[in-house]
Amino acid sequence: MLRQLLPHTGNAIRVGITGVPGAGKSTLIETLGLKLVQAGHKVAVLAVDPTSSITGGSILGDKTRMELLTREENAFIRPSPTGGTLGGVTRKTRESILICEAAGYDVILVETVGTGQSEIAVRAMVDFFLLLLVPGAGDELQGIKKGVVEIADAILINKADGENKIQAKAARTEYNRALHYLTPATEGWRPQAYVGSALDGSGIDKIWSVIESFREKMTASGALKARREAQMQQWLHTVIEEQLQRNFYNQPAVQAALPEMETAVRKGIIPPTAAAQKLLQIFQKAISK
């Protein structure tokens, strides 16, 4: 099916959105989504949450939190697929992006719900990556999110309303100073921090104009095309690795030898490298019969 859809894909802007718990990702997505739908866009919201199959994650949460957007005819919200692993969820999300584009959605918003590697996974499937932070977050948070700051194309200090405005502007200055010393995530684009409030809508139009400017500039330079080509190539290698791993662990000869090897490795009888080599030899012998 994907082969048939492929010629009808690629026309949407793909935006990844991440942030610490409580940063207001869902509120931002709903506010931005409503503005875009009202402006004539078709918006698809996809969630990447590798924990959803264990904890219930965002399976019901996204639609509950984005109640107004759910009612819009030109908006589609798909909760995180229950892939069990990040790899499974990522694969299904990549496929969903192509399906949504073929269906005519011209804005794809991909939300990371989990933490850690899910941000890296989403970065590898979108054009623009937005990091959401909150005013008053201390050095501890900055340390945790340093790796994510480095892959962001823009930072939005959300909840910049009421008494938080002064703190938000101070945070913006601080992050802009930090971004100045980091290598940009996208060549030819200098990330900046902005302030806004998903609750009252302030600053959201600005963020969208930044995303549009990014797309225009990166399309003109050829960087967007190059990024998407690299992402498709990475997807190819990922699928090959996953299939090889699946074939390896499903091989009866490997399944028979694995417990003994694991025990030997745990007890320090044999190093992991030697055990892996032995298991690979067993696998190769089994498939060559």
CATH class (first level) name of the largest domain: Alpha Beta
Characterize the quaternary organization of these chains.
Answer: single chain
User: What's the CATH H-level superfamily name of the largest domain?
Assistant: P-loop containing nucleotide triphosphate hydrolases
Number of strands: 7
**What is the name of the CATH architecture of the largest domain?**
3-Layer(aba) Sandwich
Organism: hydrothermal vent metagenome
Protein name: YgfD: protein that forms a complex with the methylmalonyl-CoA mutase in a pathway for conversion of succinyl-CoA to propionyl-CoA
Family: Belongs to the SIMIBI class G3E GTPase family. ArgK/MeaB subfamily.
Pfam family, one: MeaB
Key attributes of the depicted protein:
289 residues; alpha/beta; Rossmann fold; Helix Hairpins; 2 domains; 7-stranded parallel beta sheet; 14 helices; 7 strands; 55% helix
Structural features, described:
The chain contains 14 helices and seven strands. The longest helix is centred in the last third of the chain and has 28 residues, at 223-250. It starts with a helix and ends with a helix. The protein has helices at 2-5, 25-38, 52-55, 61-65, 67-70, 86-102, 117-123, 139-144, 146-150, 165-180, 204-221, 223-250, 252-266, 272-287, and strands at 13-19, 43-48, 75-78, 107-112, 128-133, 154-157, 192-195. The protein has a seven-stranded parallel sheet with strand order 3-2-4-1-5-6-7, with helices on both faces. Helix 13 runs antiparallel to helix 14 (272-287). The protein is globular and about 65 Å long. It is of the alpha/beta class and 289 residues long. The chain folds into two domains: 2-221, Rossmann fold (3-Layer(aba) Sandwich), CATH 3.40.50.300; 235-287, Helix Hairpins, CATH 1.10.287. 55% of the residues lie in helices and 13% in strands. Mean pLDDT is 88; it is low at 53-60 and 139-144. GO terms for molecular function: GTP binding; GTPase activity. It comes from hydrothermal vent metagenome. This is YgfD: protein that forms a complex with the methylmalonyl-CoA mutase in a pathway for conversion of succinyl-CoA to propionyl-CoA.
